[in-house]
Design goal:
By secondary structure, the protein is mainly alpha-helical. The chain contains 3 helices and 2 strands, in the order ββααα. A two-stranded antiparallel ribbon has the order 1-2. The longest helix has 16 residues.
Amino acid sequence: MTTIEPDLPELDIVTQYGVATRLPTSFPLIDPELDVALDHDLFQHGFDDALTRLDSMPTPWAHHFATLTMATEPDLAADEPSYTRGYRAALYGYLRHGNRQSPR
């Protein structure tokens, strides 16, 4: 079996048909459920706040706001890191999926 590092999951998938090696980007290397530093409620609150803010703006403004916010380095010491991660996750999803009408 092939691994990148000993503490990461196996990259090889063994089936009855043979062995396939996954690229490390084809699956999450770290299970988000195992992220003990993440407060799921605060993450969801940040995510919801970002969607509400994007919905309150005209589409070009929302896209510009999301782009500028994602371009800046977050200050995780000033805010709750889980909230900030959720907020930025919503902005990333909005930009990544090209949704120019509504991020929901």
